[in-house]
């Protein structure tokens, strides 16, 4: 092999990587412009979680014993997960519409990175959901939420929320790629929205009957919520964080792998 060939290979790989990044950035900008033209989707995503905050804090919270903590402080981590579960439904919906309109096929026929289309939807979901999460946190602060967490703990909570958003967005991508109707493209999110209700998000698992308690204590929402709650309270996290990260990263890897396989099969 010549010296020229040896030095050319890394350049080719680097050039392809840069082109791929530019492709993702261009398509993400396109998707974000669509979201900005209909900001009601972000508002709608935040409305239901805020309604749950109001309902549980001011109507049902007085009947639930969570110890010395204010109930809104106990409640917020679970509400943030519901916010993400609500928001990713729009990702599946938008991807399904792009597929139905033939936009995805036209984009993939162009000289762009194969993964750029899906990653554009993923990054758009991440940005939109972070905005919705910020709105919900501001609403919680107005309702009395307070945290003694330091900057490091807040960054850890933000990191968990980003990973959860990415993981569930890839689940939404699978739904968008496989749905046969508009309703089917978004209906997958309903179980994800309901899952926090059978966890430690709203009440301590100790108050649940045996089989329900076992399920609540061994499903991912409880581990994620407990880890975020401890971080926001400025308490030691213990093993909850490791369990939460194992769940989130596992879902992320599996969902992204399945979505990529489905996309390859569609292109074949």
TrEMBL record:
InterPro entries: ABC2_TM (IPR013525), ABC2_TM_bact-type (IPR047817), ABC_2_transport (IPR000412), Nod_factor_ABC_transporter (IPR051784). It is a multi-pass membrane protein. It comes from the Bacteria. The chain crosses the membrane at residues 42-64, 76-96, 117-145, 151-175, 187-205, 241-262. This is Transport permease protein. Residues 40-266 form the ABC transmembrane type-2 domain. Keywords: Antibiotic resistance, Cell membrane, Membrane, Transmembrane, Transmembrane helix, Transport. Pfam families: ABC2_membrane. Belongs to the ABC-2 integral membrane protein family. It is found in: Cell membrane; Membrane.
């Amino acid at each position: 092999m010549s010296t020229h060939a040896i030095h050319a290979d890394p350049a080719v790989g680097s050039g392809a990587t840069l082109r791929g990044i530019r492709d993702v950035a261009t398509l993400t900008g396109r998707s974000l412009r669509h979201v900005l033209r209909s900001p009601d989707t972000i508002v709608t995503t935040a409305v239901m979680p805020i309604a749950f905050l109001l309902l549980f804090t001011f109507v049902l919270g007085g009947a639930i014993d969570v110890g010395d903590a204010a109930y809104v402080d106990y409640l917020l981590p679970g509400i943030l997960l519901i916010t993400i579960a609500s928001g990713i439904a729009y990702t599946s919906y938008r991807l399904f519409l792009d597929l139905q309109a033939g936009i995805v096929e036209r984009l993939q026929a162009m000289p762009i990175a194969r993964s750029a289309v899906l990653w554009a939807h993923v990054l758009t979901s991440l940005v939109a959901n972070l905005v919705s999460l910020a709105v919900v946190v501001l609403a919680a602060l107005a309702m009395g939420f307070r945290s003694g967490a330091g900057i490091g703990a807040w960054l850890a909570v933000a990191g968990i929320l980003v990973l959860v958003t990415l993981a569930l967005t890839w689940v939404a991508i699978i739904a968008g790629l496989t749905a046969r109707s508009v309703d089917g493209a978004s209906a997958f999110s309903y179980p994800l929205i309901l899952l926090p209700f059978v966890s430690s998000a709203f009440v301590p698992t100790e108050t649940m009957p045996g089989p329900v308690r076992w399920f609540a204590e061994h499903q991912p929402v409880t581990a994620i919520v407990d880890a975020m709650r401890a971080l926001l309270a400025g308490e030691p996290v213990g093993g909850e964080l490791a369990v939460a990260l194992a769940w989130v990263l596992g879902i992320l890897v599996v969902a992204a792998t399945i979505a990529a396989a489905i996309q390859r099969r569609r292109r074949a």
